[in-house]
């Protein structure tokens, strides 16, 4: 397996806030000359959202989904001092250090399931992915999918892995179906879930999970839970995803049953 790496760049120009979500991401330019949608460590859910974004996005990419490049973005202590908006200035001040950016897809449009069509294999694989990651945020109201260059792209996995907001009982959570799959934007089109299960399990392996989780900086784990050593937190993420992978039949069968009530 090829080693997974993320580039690192420094944010040098804050362009505008993106107020669609509650975490107040922003469009910014880095010193590599590219624009990024920046997810800040100082936002509402802190580095847990960044951890979920990184793990979810890189697992999706490894499974063959189109995901904008993820990049570590540094913010130095002087950045944002001249920002006039007090809320944004507070956010930037709380986000010094390592943040996460998604390469900005200029001109992309929101994927609308009432207008844009998805083939059953793609729909089924995305539904499988989000049930695996326990991603609660791919609904008709907010698909977190983009149409760019006539192709479907997945964005915003920060609401995945919600078990990490309460560590207790993660083993039980790993073995549960994903109840929020009933709200998934693509579930009505996901007619090939058994085939998707076989396809995704070939690409998402225990080794891949370890490689992706290894990308998460220790610093993010320390901010997320200062009382639990980063190595222990890293181990829980890996074990959670491996248990979920090994028992994918649980969430696949549940998704199939729910879909029967919709079509």
What does this structure look like?
This protein has helices spanning about 45-60, 85-95, 120-135, 170-175, 195-205, 205-215, 220-225, 230-245, 250-260, and strands at about 10-15, 25-30, 35-40, 70-75, 95-105, 110, 145-150, 150-155. The chain has about 260 residues and is α+β, with helices and mostly antiparallel strands. The chain has a five-stranded mixed beta barrel with strand order 1-2-3-5-4. About 40% of the residues lie in helices and about 15% in strands. The chain has nine helices and eight strands. The model has no long low-confidence stretch (mean pLDDT about 95).
Provide a concise account of the structure shown.
By secondary structure, the chain is α+β, with helices and mostly antiparallel strands.
Oligomer: single chain
Order of helical and strand elements: EEEHEHEEHEEHHHHHH
> Using only CA atoms, what is the Rg?
18 Å
Low-confidence stretches: none
Question: Main sheet: which strands, in order across?
Answer: 1-2-3-5-4
Number of strands: 8
Report on the biggest sheet: 5 strands, mixed, barrel
Distinct helical segment count: 9
Shape: globular
> Helix coverage percent of residues?
25-40%
The proportion of strand residues reads 15-25%
Structural class category: alpha+beta
Can you give the mean pLDDT?
Answer: 93
- Report the end-to-end length measured between terminal Cα atoms: 39 Å
Give me the secondary-structure topology.
Blueprint: E1 8-17, E2 26-30, E3 35-39, H1 46-62, E4 70-75, H2 86-93, E5 97-103, E6 109-110, H3 120-133, E7 145-148, E8 151-154, H4 170-174, H5 193-203, H6 206-213, H7 218-224, H8 230-246, H9 248-260
Parallel strand pairs: 1-4
Antiparallel strand pairs: 1-2, 2-3, 3-5, 4-5, 6-7, 7-8
Helix pairs in contact: 1-6, 1-7, 3-5, 3-9, 6-8, 7-8
């Amino acid at each position: 397996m090829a080693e997974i790496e993320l580039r690192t760049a420094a944010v040098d120009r804050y362009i505008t806030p993106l107020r669609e979500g509650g975490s107040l991401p922003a469009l910014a330019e880095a010193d590599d000359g590219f624009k990024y949608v920046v997810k800040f460590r100082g936002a509402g859910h802190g580095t847990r959202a960044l951890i979920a974004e990184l793990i979810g996005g890189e697992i999706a990419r490894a499974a063959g989904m189109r995901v904008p490049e993820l990049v570590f973005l540094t913010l130095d202590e002087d950045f944002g001092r001249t920002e006039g908006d007090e809320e944004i200035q507070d956010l930037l001040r709380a986000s010094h250090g390592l943040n996460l950016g998604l390469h900005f897809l200029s001109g992309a449009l929101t994927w609308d399931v009432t207008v844009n069509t998805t083939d059953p294999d793609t729909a089924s694989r995305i539904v499988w992915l989000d049930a695996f990651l326990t991603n609660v945020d791919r609904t008709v109201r907010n698909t977190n999918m983009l149409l760019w260059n006539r192709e479907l792209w997945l964005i915003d996995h920060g609401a995945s892995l919600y078990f990490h907001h309460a560590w207790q009982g993660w083993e039980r959570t790993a073995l549960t179906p994903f109840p929020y799959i009933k709200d998934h934007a693509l579930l009505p089109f996901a007619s090939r879930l058994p085939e998707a299960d076989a396809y995704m399990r070939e690409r998402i392996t225990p080794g891949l999970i370890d490689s992706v989780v290894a990308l998460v900086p220790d610093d993010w784990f320390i901010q997320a839970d200062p009382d639990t050593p980063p190595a222990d937190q890293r181990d829980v993420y890996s074990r959670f995803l491996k248990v979920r992978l090994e028992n994918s039949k649980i969430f696949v069968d549940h998704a199939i049953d729910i879909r029967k009530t919709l079509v």
